Amino acid sequence: MDDFATAADLQQWLRAHFPRENERHEWKEWRALKSNISGRKGDDLVSYVSALANMEGGCVVIGAQDKTLAPTGIQDFADYTLENVVHRVLGKTPGLPSMGLHVQELRATDTGAVVWLVHVPRHAPRELVLAHDQAWQRDGDSLVPLREDRRRAILAEHLQGEDWSAAVVPGATLADLDEAAIAKAREKYFEKHQREPWAAQIPQWSTEKLLDKIGLTIHGRITRACLLLLGLPERATALLSPHPAEITWKVAAERVAEHFHPPFLLTTTDVAQRVRNPNIKLFPANELLAVTLPRYDTHTVLLEGLHNCLAHQDYAQGGRVVVEESTGLVRMINLGGFFDGQPDEYASGARTPERYRNERLAKVMAEVGMIDKVGFGIHDMVLAQRRRFLPLPDYEGSSPLRTVFNVYGQQIDENYSHWLMERTDLPIEQVLWLDRVQKKHKLDAAQVAQLRRAGLIEGRSPHLNISAQLAVATGQEVAYLNQRRPDAQDYQAALCKLLALGPQPRAKIDELLLPKLQLWIPELAQRKEYVRTLLKDMSKEGRIQNIGGKTKAARWALAPGGTTPNDHQ
């Protein structure tokens, strides 16, 4: 048992570790355990254990008030103890791994309140976790039966030791490989290993020895990875069937599309060259001349991103890699969720991959210079976009069934991009978070808090804006004022200036204020309600008065002795 001196100390600890309910954290103010451990399906502990386990695992907090996490304490344990509750939960949740399931007890010394933390492990690969004979998942504040897309994602997960790309292809021979691709593989392998004492021998190696050394063949036998990278188009397609070996490039707005096939060592360059890449002009802060550069960095970003799609594609699902091009955006899509960790961990350069979905394919792609195999590929793409004063690449739109990589070729907000990229002293993690603010993407509470402490943002989520401190530091005061939500005083001052010209009906007041409010309050009905409240408040303060009738007959005027525009100058 972990003791805390006061209930307030325990509450603070809980709020720090479980700041909000989501797919990993659940709060339950259960005072009695008898019917809540295994009782009403979809509302008891075993159902929540199933829901958490069928995602990434997590924790159920029992005995704390919803929203506030104030420790109310478990008062009736029935016959449940720390020792037996784990075994009883396991008995009600088929498929749940026993390793990792444990219960931690916390107690506030001053009130005696006892809180249980039920730590739930992630499901085993391709294994659903059931409760009451069905699998569950969260949907907002409730539980629902596991959706079909999530079920398929779990059942298609990678098994440890499984490698689709390493399988030997029966009947495949060297005659099924492209000679130009083999020559390119030899060239790139020599380039990677030119400092080795044996590098001078590489040009003289037989094709069989070269492919074995690279890892494309196993004792001379052709692997699927070999056909993907070096195979002749027709033969690779036939030998890999029913698994498509194809990259599709498309521009939906123009109804244009083209398919590309092996040898991908050569044809990925053709795909990248299909992407429209005109020069664009950017105007960085503190620069007198515009910077002219291609819309996309072909090598560091487009090719690296495309090669990552090939390396991590779940070929067993029978799909193709898709490159979708639209105005100022390229989306690269491969089947299979993001593998081994989270994108932000690689974007910051802090993580080295521990495993690959296609281990052999990833290894040989690294040997011939197509990908980076120590985790710096995504990091390099982020830095390349940062140096180009463009929004950072991201993985928005990804799911457990597919990975979506977005490359931006134009500024989202010119002013925001300027000051974001000029702050070269910011840690890469904060740059990533600020880029999400620019794109109006959601941030975790902890990330928002850290940016706030650093003085980089202001406003309330989800309406976060550039802070005054940063705006002044980068010469973007005007951009700051344009983005910052105006105070009520701004609207009051504008109204006073209008009424100084004479009494006005509500329609004229709406004509003045509604357009100013549109950026911050998109809904017309809500904007009108804001104006109504503004008039009511100013009337109560004695600054304005209605000298007409009610509703449409109202005519608003400055009250005697009320505020005039000059008072605000």
Walk me through the structure.
- The chain has 569 residues and is α+β, with helices and mostly antiparallel strands.
- The protein is 37% helix and 16% strand.
- The chain has 21 helices and 22 strands.
- The protein has a 5-stranded mixed β-sheet with strand order 1-4-5-3-2, with helices on both faces.
- Strand 11 and strand 12 (256-260) form a beta hairpin.
- The longest helix is centred in the C-terminal third of the chain and has 17 residues, at 524-540.
- The radius of gyration is 30 Å and the shape is globular.
- Residues 564-569 have low confidence and may be disordered.
Classify the secondary structure makeup into a structural class: alpha+beta
Give the overall shape, derived from the CA principal axes.
globular
Strands of the widest sheet, in order across it, are 1-4-5-3-2
Determine the fraction of residues in helical runs and give it as a percent range. 25-40%
User: Ranges with pLDDT <50 over ≥5 residues?
Assistant: 564-569
Tally of strands: 22
Radius of gyration: 30 Å
Question: pLDDT average, as an integer?
Answer: 87
Q: Ends: how far apart?
A: 63 Å
Strand content: 15-25%
Count helical runs. Answer: 21
User: What is the quaternary state of this protein?
Assistant: single chain
Largest sheet: 5 strands, mixed
Topology:
Layout: E1 2-4, H1 7-17, E2 25-28, H2 45-53, E3 58-62, H3 82-92, E4 102-108, E5 114-120, E6 130-131, E7 134-139, E8 142-145, H4 148-155, H5 179-192, H6 207-214, E9 217-218, E10 221-222, H7 224-230, H8 233-240, E11 247-251, E12 256-260, H9 264-274, E13 279-282, E14 291-294, H10 298-312, E15 321-326, E16 329-335, H11 343-347, H12 359-367, H13 377-387, E17 402-408, H14 414-422, H15 428-438, H16 445-453, E18 457-458, E19 465-466, H17 468-473, H18 477-483, H19 488-499, E20 504-505, H20 506-517, H21 524-540, E21 544-546, E22 555-558
Helix pairs in contact: 7-12, 9-10, 10-13, 14-15, 19-20, 20-21
